[in-house]
Pseudouridine synthase (candidate division WOR-3 bacterium), 255 residues
Amino acid sequence: MKPERLQKYLASAGVGSRRHCEELIEAGRVRVNGAMAKLGQSVTPGKDRVEYRGREVKPEAEKVVVAVNKPAGYLSACFRGHEEGWLVTELVDLPFRLYPVGRLDRDSEGLLLLTNDGDIALELTHPRYGKEKEYEVELDRPAGPELCDRLQKNVQLADGPARAVRASLVGPGRLSVVLAEGRKRQLRRMLEALGCRVVRLRRVRIAGLRLGELPLGKWRRLSAREVTEKLGRGSEERRSQKAEVRTQNPEAKKP
């Protein structure tokens, strides 16, 4: 077999996203053939022995993507760190090593994906792909259209400016917000910077996949067709084409 980047190998073994695996390598928590691994190192599957947390890890042949309706109080992580809470991976009963795709902070709820597929995780989280995430937000006070306008412009945060792709009012103190990047607690920080406090935050869509009627705390495995059509390359293009048709023909039936 051909050599591949160590972080890609680890991601395909269900250790975490490629970016997270890079952090693990830099932290000295990965070993290759008994020696501490280095970032940028390549390994050959079936030839090199790769260990994480003292145990050998191997890529899983069967790729899995699971949708979870994460309750508040659960951590988007595989292992407990300093933050208190239950692990979202504990909600899923499957014989695979799965990890969360992206972030959904402990106090937030809604759609979160778990996978052992490093390629789909990279596509859904890397900024260059611009995959949309849609949120329903409840604020501690009524809001007007000017708040939506400000969210769609640059909001200055400690780690740089941020903006929403779209933002609209859906009720008194209730917003629908779409982001195309996923910095830590980004939407909460954007609203705090504009003088608002979030009472409830719920993610309802990732790319073309909607949370739908999945009950809180439950999960379901996605079909290969769903992964390809709703999460993979082309899902955003299809959404954009449908949105353009509706704009040109307001009477067109919504999908």
In short: The helical segments are 6-12, 18-26, 118-125, 145-151, 186-193, 224-231, 235-248. The domain at 132-206 is CATH 3.30.70.1560 (Alpha-Beta Plaits).
